[in-house]
């Protein structure tokens, strides 16, 4: 039985209930069981010790250049290898590139290809749920590093198919020998290069090894945290992933995360030429002659991409539209016949005007009418459709919009407006359609 399990009293003749330590309250007797000590050592203790060593370890220019170069190599091992090649199969790679990516990916100290990809596929399949291994719904800190340093119940994580990874000899070999690969790629190799190259063995270990891995880890973790927290959602807003240039700069282009979650099979994260995505550029360059190391680069159909973008833009327009006064919908207006309309206008003194089959109360606007009181008063109790649409003046778009806020009734038999009222077809109209606007001004005003 795992030391992270606890047996609770149970009903006789039933098996004892076992609760994982992650679901148990913190006590003095179990707090240490909640921590994944191996991961905590690799992503907290060793990086902290490496940063402490920089206080007494000189940083030479060759070591700095080598550290930055190896940083990008190992970061590409994650973004171009673990992520886009093995997790999403966005492209295919020939053996030399696959070996390079498996080696540099191990140097990033983020687990084996198999372990990393299994978690990432679960993240995509179960985004923003408890089955998501690093769900941002459990807090920004948890999604960034908490999921790594805490012991989590393996039964909670959503399952995914990784049979393709189990049939990949490089993935299988690296997973089986991951400890040795990590030691060599993360610390020994960068130390040897600096030592044999310019005699800086210790600086190579501290800066190109420990500190460099620390920065790669934290940059990658930002994809799980910041990329689900800051930025825009130009393709979908049903889930948390977002696009932001800051996250892209930190993660070698992985920050255009809203696009990636919508189109995970696309080898690109950024699709606009000026957006920062060096991982995409490297994959593309490696596909060109004479290298030909990557091939079958997958891209999603631009038609579907633009659909998502347009739908989000429409949502934004709808949200803005809902905050404005467009007047009462036709379906909510009463139906008034012509005789009642003229009677109210003459005997009751109501400033009612019929335009386009809709009756409007212009009482409060008489004194504000730019054309003067006389013109607007002359239309009271009449069908002013022709006057309003060019008979006297071709009113502007703003005038039609303002007029819609004055609706009080639908005129019986007034053009096709009553049909919308009785058949409940208001929702089928274009939200920006102005019922008072006619294509061609009628020659004269005709009462319904």
TrEMBL record:
Membrane topology field: Multi-pass membrane protein
Origin superkingdom: Eukaryota
Compartments reported by the entry: Membrane
Domain Cytochrome b5 heme-binding residue range list: 333-412
Biological process according to GO: unsaturated fatty acid biosynthetic process
InterPro entries noted in UniProt: Acyl-CoA_deSatase_haem/ster-bd, Acyl-CoA_DS, Cyt_B5-like_heme/steroid-bd, Cyt_B5-like_heme/steroid_sf, Cyt_B5_heme-BS, FA_desaturase_dom, FADS-1_CS
Primary location: membrane
Gene Ontology CC terms, in alphabetical order: endoplasmic reticulum membrane
Presence of keyword Transport: yes
Cofactor: Fe(2+)
Membrane-spanning segments: 35-52, 64-83, 95-113, 133-150, 181-199
UniProt keywords, alphabetically: Electron transport, Fatty acid biosynthesis, Fatty acid metabolism, Heme, Iron, Lipid biosynthesis, Lipid metabolism, Membrane, Metal-binding, Oxidoreductase, Transmembrane, Transmembrane helix, Transport
Reactions listed under catalytic activity: octadecanoyl-CoA + 2 Fe(II)-[cytochrome b5] + O2 + 2 H(+) = (9Z)-octadecenoyl-CoA + 2 Fe(III)-[cytochrome b5] + 2 H2O
Segment forming the signal sequence: none
The enzyme's E.C. designation: 1.14.19.1
Cofactor info, note text: Expected to bind 2 Fe(2+) ions per subunit.
Gene Ontology molecular function, alphabetical: heme binding; iron ion binding; stearoyl-CoA 9-desaturase activity
Pfam family, one: Cyt-b5
Family: Belongs to the fatty acid desaturase type 1 family.
Purpose of the protein: Stearoyl-CoA desaturase that utilizes O(2) and electrons from reduced cytochrome b5 to introduce the first double bond into saturated fatty acyl-CoA substrates.
Protein name (record): Acyl-CoA desaturase
């Amino acid at each position: 039985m795992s030391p992270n399990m606890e047996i609770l009293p149970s009903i006789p003749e039933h098996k004892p209930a076992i609760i994982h330590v992650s679901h148990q309250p913190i006590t003095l007797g179990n707090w240490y069981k909640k921590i994944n000590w191996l991961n905590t050592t690799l992503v907290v203790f060793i990086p902290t010790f490496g940063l402490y060593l920089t206080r007494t370890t000189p940083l030479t220019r060759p070591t700095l250049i080598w550290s930055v170069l190896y940083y990008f190599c190992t970061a590409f091992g994650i973004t171009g290898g673990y992520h886009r090649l093995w997790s999403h199969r966005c492209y295919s790679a020939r053996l030399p590139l696959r070996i390079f990516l498996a080696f540099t990916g191990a140097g990033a100290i983020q687990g084996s290809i198999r372990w990393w990809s299994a978690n990432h596929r679960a993240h995509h399949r179960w985004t923003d749920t408890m089955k998501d291994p690093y769900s941002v719904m459990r807090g920004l800190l948890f999604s960034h590093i908490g999921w790594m340093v805490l012991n989590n119940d393996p039964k909670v994580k959503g399952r995914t198919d990784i049979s393709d990874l189990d049939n990949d000899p490089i993935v299988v070999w690296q997973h089986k020998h991951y400890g040795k690969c990590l030691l060599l790629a993360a610390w020994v190799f960068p130390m040897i290069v600096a030592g044999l190259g310019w005699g800086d063995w210790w600086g190579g270990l501290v800066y190109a090894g420990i500190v460099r891995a620390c920065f790669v880890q934290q940059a990658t973790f930002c994809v799980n945290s910041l990329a689900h927290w800051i930025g825009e959602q130009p393709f979908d807003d049903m889930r948390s992933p977002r696009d932001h240039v800051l996250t892209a700069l930190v993660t070698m282009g992985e920050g255009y995360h809203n696009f990636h979650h919508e189109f995970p099979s696309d080898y690109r994260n950024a699709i606009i030429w000026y957006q920062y995505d060096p991982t995409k550029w490297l994959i593309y360059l490696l596909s060109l002659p004479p290298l030909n190391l990557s091939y079958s680069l997958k891209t999603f159909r631009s038609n579907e991409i633009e659909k998502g973008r347009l739908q989000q833009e429409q949502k934004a327009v709808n949200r803005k539209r809902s905050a404005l006064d467009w007047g009462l919908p036709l379906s909510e207006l009463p139906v008034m016949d012509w005789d009642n309309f003229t009677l109210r206008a003459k005997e009751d003194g109501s400033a009612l005007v019929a335009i386009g089959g809709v009756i409007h109360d212009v009482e409060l606007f008489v004194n504000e009418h730019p054309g003067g009181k006389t013109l607007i008063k002359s239309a009271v109790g009449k069908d002013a459709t022709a006057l309003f649409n060019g008979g006297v003046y071709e009113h502007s778009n703003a005038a039609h919009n303002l007029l819609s806020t004055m609706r009080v009734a639908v005129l019986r038999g007034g053009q096709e407006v009553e049909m919308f009222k009785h058949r409940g077809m208001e929702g089928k109209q274009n939200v920006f359609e102005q019922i008072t606007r006619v294509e061609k001004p009628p020659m004269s005003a005709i009462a319904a």
